[in-house]
Amino acid sequence: MESVQAILKLLGEAALQLVAQPFYYIAVLFIILQYVRQMRMERQLFAVKLRDWKGLVLKSLITGLFIGVSVSVVSIFVGTTLTSSAVLWLWSIAALLMLIRIRYLCFAYSAGVITLLQWVLGFTPLADRSDWIGTLAMSLERVDAAGLLFLVALLHLAEALLVRAQGDKLSTPLFLEGKRGKLVGGYLLQGFWPIPLFLLAPVTSESVTGITDYSLPWTPLFGGDWTQGWTIVALPMIIGFTEMTRSMLPRTKAKHAANSLLMYSVVLLAMAIVAWWQPILLPLAAITSFLLHEAIVWHSLRTEASRSPLYVHDSRGLRILGIVPGTPAEAMGLLVGEILHKVNGVRVRTKEDLYEALVQNSAFCKLEIYNFDGELKFAQKARYAGDHHQLGVILAPDEHANYYAASGPASLLGLLRGMRASNRRGRSESSGENIQG
After folding, report:
1. Does residue 286 sit in the same domain as residue 377?
2. Which is it for strands 393-395 and 318-323: parallel, antiparallel or unpaired?
3. Which of 8, 19, 146, 345 has the most beta carbons within 10 angstroms of its beta carbon?
């Protein structure tokens, strides 16, 4: 009973430690900024709100809490020695990297940089100095690099599962500038989750509390000195992914991204375990953490560049780019990527054709659609006052489209400065890139 009370006490202290730190709130603020920007983009491009940013943020918080609890339970058997100083190093490096690129917020980069800095520090006498430089060097020297890389791998494993399960549901349609300046349809797949972690760690000189009269009933993976007892450390993290596709359905792109993240997490897990066993291999594990991550991003961009755009109209009719929730299109089971061939018996090749065909029968609508496999299917529904004037379908762009999605801000300063959602055609476009966490 005393041990249970001690554990609950430590959990309470860790929770207070979490809410007292600014990092969790920074993660939530970043997520809000991203989703607000996404909603503004949807409104400017399509004049409709496909989702509510507040609902997305709430779902992100709940999912992140569940993932945090799950990873925390797994970490009980790992035996990392991460402390509050490790949290400071992780977020400080991430903040500096975000000034260069937003996608460097992914802790694969900051954990790799910390590990390399720690390795380089071993060849210098900085830790022996008595000034603030020596204090920083000693703090960096004590970071459990192998445990940090292992934790990053676990988070990417959780991210892979989330992308596989929710990736297509977190997608939003876009008008994008394709090759030779022609507009095409596409999808932005974007999701972020703040992860509150509560890690079991041995008591160190940095720990202020611990359970000194209760030994662990198991041997942690990374060993460590548990003779002085153990404590619980709060570690706020954030995971997320951003992918863009012009050539795949959202669910297909999400599957590809999830597979890449799964491969990455397995490789990094193995490298972290090997580096713990042979610390001389820590620099190799650190380099793997961000070079392999960069390879995933590069492979995604190359795959998109090698494929033909999907969301364009063809001789059969009008390509469906998106479906507005709660509209006749959703009720009739229309799907992204399908082609409207005939409406009320009239062939439709332009938006004007669609409007005229719908006007012919204001009380009923009968559709002929080519599905994604090229097979013809039929759908029909009565029309009522207040129904969406275009059935609730978002069509791929044509030459008359006035706006296309601006490239996302490349850096944190760009995100704070540039909340512009889209560009009018003909205006210059800011540089940016896709990210994957």
Report:
1. no
2. antiparallel
3. 146
* The token pair that represents 23 in the structure block: 């990092």
Is residue 433 one of the residues assigned to a domain? no
Q: How far apart are CA 272 and CA 144, in angstroms?
A: 11
Task: Specify whether 153 is located in the same domain as 62.
Answer: yes
Residue carrying the six token digits 């969406």: 388
Residue ranges of E strands in 37-161:
none
Same domain, residue pair 193 and 223: yes
Using alpha carbons only, give the angle 71, 72, 73 rounded to the nearest 5 degrees.
Answer: 90
Token output for 148: 């940090």
Buried (b) or exposed (e) across 322-332, using 16+ Cβ within 10 A?
bbbeebbbbeb
Give the C-alpha separation, 16 to 10, whole Å: 10
pLDDT attached to residue 308: 92
The answer for residues whose C-beta is within 8 angstroms of residue 315's C-beta and 6 or more apart is none
Closest CA to 45 of 340, 425, 350: 425
What are the tokens at 247? 């050539």
Query: Are 258 and 325 in the same domain?
Result: no
Q: How many domains does the chain have?
A: 2
User: Would residue 34 count as lying in a domain?
Assistant: yes
Angstrom distance (rounded) from CA 338 to CA 318:
8
Q: Which domain holds residue 234?
A: 2-306
Last residue of a domain, one of 248, 272, 306: 306
CA dist list (Å): 98 to 191, 344, 407: 17, 52, 17
Single pTM value for the model? 0.86
CATH number, domain of 363, equals 2.30.42.10
In a domain, 88, yes or no: yes
Helices 107-121 and 132-141: crossing angle in degrees, nearest 10, is: 110
Whether 249 and 377 share a structural domain: no
Does 80 share its domain with 141?
A: yes
pLDDT at 32 over 50: yes
Residue owning tokens 């961009």: 301
User: Among 400, 416, 396, which Cα is nearest to 408's?
Assistant: 416
d(CA 412, CA 96): 10
How far is residue 253's CA from residue 235's CA, in Å, rounded to a whole number? Answer: 31
Return the exposure string of 11-39: e unless at least 16 CB atoms fall within 10 Å of the residue's CB, then b: eebbeebbeebebbebbbebbbbbbbbbb
> Which tokens in the block code for residue 175?
């008008």
Instruction: Tell me the per-residue pLDDT of 122-151, one tens digit each, with 9 for 90 and over.
Output: 898 888 888 888 888 998 998 889 989 999
Residue 138: inside a domain, yes or no?
Answer: yes
Range of lowest pLDDT (17-21, 323-327, 433-437): 433-437
Listed in sequence order, the residues at least 6 apart from 146 whose beta carbon sits closer than 8 Å to its beta carbon are 222, 272, 273, 275, 276, 279, 282, 285
Cα 166–Cα 169–Cα 171 angle in degrees, nearest 5:
115
